[in-house]
Each structure stands twice: as C-alpha cells, then as structure tokens.
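Fig. S4 source data, part A: sequence.
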Amino acid sequence: NAAPRDIVSPRCPARTQMSLGAAFAATGLSVTARALRSVRPGASSQPALRVAPVRSPLRVRSVTTMATLEANPLASWTYGLGEKAGEAPDLPKWSSIKDEHVKPAITAAVAAANAEIDAIEKRLAEAESPPSTWAEIMDPLERLSEKLSRPWGVVSHLKGVRDSDDLRAAYDECQPEVVTASLRIGQSRPVYDAMVGLMENEAAFKTLTPAQRRAVECEVRDAKLSGVALDGTQKERYNEIAKELSALSTEFSNNVLDATKAFEHLCVDVADVAGLPKSALEQAAQTAKTRGKHENATAEDGPWMFTLDAPSYMAVRSHAENRALREKVYRAYLARASQFFEPFASTPADASEPKKLGDNAPLIERILTLRQEKAALLGYDNFAEVSMAKKMATLATAESLLEDIRAKSFPAAERELEEIRAFAAERGAPEASTGLMQWDVGFWAERLREAKYELKEEDLRPYFQLPAVIDGMFELAEQLFGVKVEAADGEVEVWHPDVRFFKVLDAQSGAPRAYFYLDPYTRPAEKRGGAWMDDVVGRSAAMAAPGASVRLPTAHMVCNGTPPVGDKPSLMTHNEVTTLFHEFGHALQHMLTTEDVGPVAGINQVDWDAVELPSQFMENFCYDKKVLKKIGKHHETGEPLPDDLFEKLVKSKNFGSGTRYLRQCHFAMTDLELHARYKPGEGADAVFAAEAKIATKTMLMPAIKEDRFLCGFGHIFAGGYSAGDYSYLWAE
C-alpha cells in the first residue's frame, strides 16, 4: 500500500503453453507442452504418420555415471501414457529425480525428437498427396513435442523450486542442445508447408472443428515467429540469437536469485525490532535458527534475522520502527543483481568470502539488442510488434490504456502521498521535518491505514490459517464450477515435503477431472520469488493412455507465502490469500477445460493479455463476505472472521490505489518503451536513463542512486512479459 516501486506484482501468470512453431522460444521460460489434439473420429481417410512409442532403451553417458534410461526416473516418465485405470496418475517422480539424471534424460529426449522430426519430414516427402486431415499431420507433431517439452519442463520447474549448483550446471549444459532441437522442429519447412496446405485446402479445413482450425492457425503463426521463412545466413543468425537469448535469460534469473539469497541482516537488540509484529519476529527468529545457526533464537529475545524474501522484506518495510533497518533492506532490494549490491552481500557461514554475484545491467543491454535484431530478421520494426503478434492489443491500444490509467492515477497518488506526509508530521516523525524517503513511505502508509480504518494487518492474520483458507477456496470451487477437490497426499511423489497434492473430481459423478500440486511456502535458499502456475501435463486425447479417451490435465501452483512457525499453521496476510486465489484461478482454467484439442485446451494459446482474466476473477472473492466467513477461521478458537473486521477490510480495499496503479503503469510503460523505441548501444546507463524519463510521468519521488530496479525485473527479462507487462491492467 502506497509503496514506491520496489515490489513487482507478486503474481506471475500461467505460462501460456508454447506451440510447436514457438518451440521452446528462447525466453528462458520452462518449456511446457503444446499438446496438439489427436484425430477427430472418422476424419482420416489416409494412414497417419507413424510415431515411435515413448520408450528409451538407449544407454547414455552422463557427466558422472552410466545408467540405463529405464532406471532414470526422468527419462522413463511417459507423460501420462503409462497411466492405468484405478491407479495413481502417471506424473513425474519428483523426489527420485536427481541432478545426475538430467543430462542423460535430456540427451535422449533431444535424440528422440530429432529422429522423430526427420521421420515426419521423410513421410511428408514420400506421401502421394499433402495431408488433408488432422490425424495425418497434427497427431504426430503432438507426440513429437511431448518427447522433449515434458522432460525439459520438469527440469525447468525443479530449477525454480529446488535450485542447486549441480542442477544449474546440468541445466546450463543441456540448454543449448534443447534450444537447437527446438529450433530444428519449429523451423521445419515441410511441416510448415503441410499445415499451410491444410489451411488452404478449403474443403479439408472445413472438416476440422473450430478448435482444430484455431490450433492450426496458431501453429502457422508461431512457425513464422520462429523463423521458418528465413534461409541461409539469416536463419543461422536467428538461431544464434535464440540460443544466446535463452542463456541470457537463465543467467538473469540466476543473478536475481543469488542476490536475494546473499542478503541477511541480524538484529540482536530488541530495540532494533520495535514495531514488528509477533508473526514477523517469530519468522525472523526461525530464520536465525535455520540460516544463521542461532539455535536458541526466540521471537521474544532474539536474535532475529531478516532477508530479502518477500514475507521478511515486506514486514520490515511496513512495520519496523527502526528507520536504518528499513533503509538498508530497501536499498538492498533495489540494488539486487547490479553493481551496487556488493556492499549488501553477506558471506555464507560455510565460506571464507561472499559468492561472486552477477550484474544484470550488461545483460539487459544485450537482451534488448538481440531482441531488436530478432525483430528485424522477422520483418518487424521493433520487438514490441513481435510480442503483440500473439496478443489482443496493439502497441497503440496498450499505450492508450496505460496513459488513460496513468493520467487518472497520478493526481490520486499525489493526494495519497501528501496525506501520508501530513500524517507522519502529525505523529511527530523526525523524518517528516527533513522529508520522507522511499523507505519511510511504506511504513507511514501502513500507520495511516491502521488509523484511518482501525485495522491492522496482524488483526487479520490469525483468521487466515492456510488449511482453512484452502478448504474454503475448494468449497467455493465446488459451488461455482461443480467440482470437488480432495487431498491425495502420498499418492504421487513431490519435490519438497511441504508440497501438497490434490485431485479434482466431478461433484456429481465423482469422476476425476484433473490434479494439481500446491507449493505454498517461501524457501529462499532454493526457490525463486513470486508466485506462479504452470502445467505438468495438459488435457489431450492424443496423449491418452491405452484404454482411456483423454489424458487429464495436471497443474502446479507455487507461492512464496509465510511458512508455519513451530506448531502454528501458516498464518497468512490478506494479500497472500489473494495471491493464492489468483493462482488458483489460473489453475482452474487449465484443469477444468472440457476441450480435447490440446493447443486450445485450458491455458493453451490464450492471448497473453487475456490470460490474467480468470486469476483476477477469483481475486474478487477475497472480499466476498460469504467466502471470507468460510476461509477466515481463527487458528486457535475456530471463530469465523468477525463482521467488524470484514467491514474494515472492505473499506480499506482501495486505500493507496492511486499509487498502486501508477506503479503498475510505470512497469508497463517502461517495458513498452524499452521494446518499442529504445535504441541499444548508447552506453551502459542508457537503459536506466530511458526508465528515468518514464519515471517523470509515473513516479512522485526521485530514484535513489542504488535504484537498479530493472536489474531485478525478471518479468520482462527472464519471463514471458517482454512487451507484455501491460497485460495485468489490460485483463483487469
């Protein structure tokens, strides 16, 4: 609330499924399936292309050991094809997968994918006539895509939730060959010509369902964006760019995570933690025990360790009376992965010196340079146009929306800041006489909100225990969508003991509809920040197990919420509750689809600036009285959320909204400026100057010297939001 600009929206969208044409586009995102739908019954009058069954009897030498692929839990996963009726779903053996399994499994997957695309192209060349049915071309492509995208998606997911040096090494070693194989597939001219031919065959195209036609059209579009039309040196250069962008994206993300992990601040004097709520002190004491090796740390007597992990950082920024502590964590957060972060890095307990940390500034310049060159190769004026090719909006309509919101938000944000300044002065704050700084605004905004609405964040936390919130959220899903969510812990492997597993059943018939994992708590030592939903497998008739009609979808929801402390359950802030509902909205769209055509089932091929609609729809229920009464139960007494707290929560909903919207405009307008008009090559600091120019219209306070917010802006430099951060506001 009334925050300056240090926290990017904590929620990441479902990572919209990539098509065959987009084939693992070098964005650094985990590669998820394209799931192209199987044969429409009775549609094929010609034999479909033969695709080898999913099995890998090869032996591949890894870096450290020899192992048959059948014994490799990553290589032996069959993406749902091995599922048997009445048994647990065929999902990755997460806990069994070790770092040494990655290289042999991915090497085999790449080899299988390359062999398969060769076979498909050979069959197309030998065919008497071009494909005229869905089954002739699209089924084989789906099965081909699964062989590489699924195991690589598992590795990418583990890198986000169970990061380690060995896993990074394996990932980095495999990434170039994965990108090379994906480019080979996505740029297959025979496949592209076959799909275009199917589209141009009016009679044949009409026999496809609307969903199938949409899928083919998207594949053709994505193939063009993958460089299928390029030849010779242009194609070579495009592929070089794709490989380098993929590596840069990974490096960018690693640098942000490393910097976040490298910061810690220990307080030993109770006066230094004045103002911090009990829940924050409990968490800080637990961190001091687990990370700082202070075995006797307690919430009452300390010591207390604070980090840049979101629950810790936000507690300090909003509640710590210790201004010096607020300033330190604020400066450190904005300096992450930049030249200014080194003074904030701590030396690990088991090391003699701090880990060498990367600076993302030169990476940003290189990423923008390569994206611009990529756009030119594809025939676009700038990379924003490339991005917009797969979105609802155009550059003009997106910027028009942002300017409209900015113009309305700016005067509101000015009024909010003046009210905060006046309130701090009334309360006799020493900093009020010299002028509030960025690290003061969040603290005094929270004090103002407490005074204005007689509501403290900590008043709500005891009522939002994660188990009750989950139960109420599932009850809401049953009421809205006719599904019943049941715990299925222990039926499949998970990647961490905190991870839960659930199955989604039809409420009337009891038949399974989908499955999902929930990874709710922060783990700063190995898990990247934010919150996101992604798929494990998608709904697909073509990938159904023998005897089944369809493979059911499975999702994973990942949050970085407040973990349990001692024997207490996780007690959530209302914002953490909203984030959970947000990700559940993404997961529901993926899981509740009844469309068997994989490319357009669930989250597949949803325009990026529309993909946030289901998530933000679900957020609304976090202010619904009936829902809050169900999810809000005191963790000790079971008492439902009192009416007076509910009324105060609703009244405070729009507090600081001018500042929040202005901040989102800054993110989105900077993103579009960098990808539409910024000219790389004008110096190391030019990109920050471009952001500063946007800030004259979107920020009320001048940036501090250490402000390298862009160096941590993973949404657009290590995620799928390049020229797309406006999507949050567009979908809303």
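Fig. S4 source data, part B ends here. Residues 468 and 631 are 5 Å apart (CA to CA).
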